[in-house]
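Entry 14. Ran structure prediction on the chain below.
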Amino acid sequence: MSQILLTEPDQISAGTNTYEVSSFTFRWNNDPYVNIGLSGEGGLVKTIIYTGDDAVGVLFAMTFAIGLIEKLVLNRLLSDGKLQGTIQDE
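Output, C-alpha cells:
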C-alpha cells in the first residue's frame, strides 16, 4: 500500500511520520465533495475534505481511476448476485 512519508512529522501525535489512505468518498452532483480519510502511525486518523470547485478539480484529476473502480464495483455487485442486469458504458 502506498503512503506519504511526511517531510516533518505531524505534531498532533508526536512522531507520526507517515499517512496512508484509509477511505475515499466523493460526490460529483449537487454540492460536489471529496473526503479522504488518512491513517497515521499509532492510530492517528485525519480527514481531508475538498468541496465545490476544489472537489471538482480533484475528481477530474482522478476520472480514469474512478471509472475503473466504478466498473469493478458494478461487476462485483453483478457477480455476487446483489443486482441483476448488464453494465452499460456511457
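The two ends are 31 Å apart (CA to CA). Will compare against last week's run tomorrow.
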